[in-house]
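>> Question from a student workshop board

For tomorrow's exercise we were told to take the sequence and the ligand below, predict the bound structure, and bring the output to class. My setup keeps failing. Could a helper post the expected result so I can at least see what it should look like? The ligand is magnesium ion.
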Amino acid sequence: MAKTTISIIKCDVGSIAGHHVVPQELLDACRDVLARGRDEGTIVDFYVTNCGDDIELIMSHRRGEEDSKVHELAWEAFKAAAERAKEMHLYGAGQDILKTAFAGTVKGMGPGVAELEFEERPSEPIVVLMADKSSVGAWNMPLFRIFADPFCTAGLVIDPAMHDGFRFRVMDVIEGTYVELNCPEEMYDLLALIGDPHRYVIERVFRKRDGLPCAVTSTTVLSLIAGKYVGKDDPVALIRIQHGLPALGEVLEAFSFPHLVPGWMRGSHYGPLMPVSQRDAKCTRFDGPPRVVALGFQVRDATLIGPVDLFDDPAFDYARAIANQIANYMRAHGPFEPHRLPPDQLEYTTLPQLLERLKPRFKKLGK
Ligand code: F6R
Ligand code: MG
Ligand code: MG
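>> Workshop helper replied:
Here is what the output should look like for this input. Compare the format with yours to find the bug.
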């Protein structure tokens, strides 16, 4: 049986009332392009949605990762949506489309990409994670908890198929290199890196005993492509679950703690990552707080059955209440760190221009 690939490709090409939500017209423009791609046989199935101001294309196919035809299809969908956004005078129309000529891949052109090729199991449940007003690296803590922390994932202790642990591939997004580390034995080395999520980002997770691919994240850093702030790199991730992998509830459990992520207002502030239903995937207060949506699918012969909206549940009310409390507390710092990001992370925003203006006014002490 040919392998199945799930490609999640996302892009912010404009939204209604500022950087708020993608209107239906743009999602429909993408659906039309992907339906054509399905009818022509490039992809087998697709689901188009949004998380706040980001369009999310979830595609299933048989063509493997980094396939130029699949990427081109996604690129055409985003271009069609961007055209529509321009016609509608939407805010940020075409924002993440950083290059014009397509050259075989959308990587490095603006969109975020997470793709996983695998052999379908007899039953193949998956979870798609999507964030808004957040940044690449936001999945480090939850992925560590899902695949390496027995206080989150009981299966690491209880299930013989998981007991050997998992292998993490960590990207250095500055150098463009990666390292693979095994857990539990190299856990402290892993934490030494991924505790700095601005530079070290978990890109993939494999089951150690057989190398089964379990998870993948998007690692594009827009400012590193554009050399300036062009909006945040709201990340996506895909996780295979159950039957010798973390259970659905072990994946979701990692989001019961709304950890602080960089993003929020102007991509320049720390805020709690609030788990929400799709209905609530729209940032409001101070352009936030940052949100995460989780969709569950069953994959069958490369078709997508679902989705189910996984944080649409009172069991996450408490996490949301904590996130609101943390949001309030962080907001009370106003323009001060650690609510505001430290200077090295504001490097690509508009703040350096203002600091530059003040430079001539600094006088040497004692003169
Ligand atoms: C953060 C984000 C928003 C904008 C903010 C200012 O990722 O998209 O918080 O940075 O609304 O936007 P501009 O400069 O476009 O007015
Ligand atoms: Mg935007
Ligand atoms: Mg966004």
